[in-house]
Amino acid sequence: MRFVVATNNLHKIVELKPLFPCHELLMPSDLGINEFCPEENGKTFFENAYIKARSLYELLGIPSMADDSGLCVEALGGKPGIGSARYGSNGKELLAASEKNSLLLSELAGVSNRNCAFVCCLVFYYGKQRFMCVQETLEGEIAGSPSGKGGFGYDPIVYLPQYGKTVAELSADEKNRISHRGKAAQRMATMLATLSLGCRD
After folding, report:
1. Would you say residue 201 lies in a domain?
2. Which helix (H) or strand (E) holds 182?
3. Which among 6, 51, 110, 167 is least surrounded, fewest beta carbons within 10 Å?
4. Cα 160 vs. chain centroid, distance in angstroms?
5. Which SS3 state, helix, strand or coil, does residue 109 take?
6. Is 201 among the residues known to form the active site?
7. Is the Cα dihedral 58, 189, 133, 91 positive or negative?
């Protein structure tokens, strides 16, 4: 099946494509939509993912999937959470990933509680008020300093004790298997199969 993913983030598309081998994933720009920025005014990952998926479906009329994800840090009361992409921007230009990581590490300076969790919510919208949703997490700890070249975003500062490495140090296969987005995508792919939407020719 052919569907569009509500993101302008090429990194997310690269991670998602291998997890949906039976389907053709497109970006809005592939269909001539170069600016897709619906107002994400939800209060949860689900609400924002739903807003994006429904908005894109209404715009293009084809099945659409949206991902809303973020990093929740226990010592910061769950922040940056749904504001992870805009963390530290104060309504201005978005910070680079390295800048956000440095800011987060500075906020946790001297804090012993380093517990955190990545959260990913996927919403697949395929008709008026017809949608499916999955949400998964990946728990870890905020590292003392960035490490690793893989992944993107907060990956270099999220340490996984059970693997002895940060998310950015995982191989692509490891990350797809255990990450919040990888687990959510695997569940969504299974759900799509139950709808008999099948593999593309």
Report:
1. no
2. helix 180-194
3. 110
4. 18
5. coil
6. no
7. negative
140 neighbors 116 (Cβ within 8 angstroms): yes
Task: Using the structure block, give the residue that is written with the tokens 């490495």.
Answer: 165
Per-residue pLDDT of 159-182, as tens digits, reads 999 999 999 999 999 999 999 999
Q: DSSP state, 94?
A: P
The pLDDT tens digits of the residues spanning 57-98 come to 999 999 999 999 999 999 999 999 999 999 999 878 899 999
Write out the residue range of the structural domain in which residue 128 sits: 2-194
CATH number of 53's domain:
3.90.950.10
The enclosing H or E element of 115 equals strand 115-127
pTM of the model: 0.90
Count the domains in the chain: 1
Looking at 68, 155, 173, 201, which residue is catalytic?
68
In a domain, 98, yes or no: yes
Sole residue written with tokens 């709808």 = 195
**Residues in the chain, how many?**
201
Q: What is the pLDDT of residues 5-18, one digit of tens each?
A: 998 888 888 889 99
Distance CA 45, CA 47 (A): 6
Enter the tokens of residue 171.
């191989």
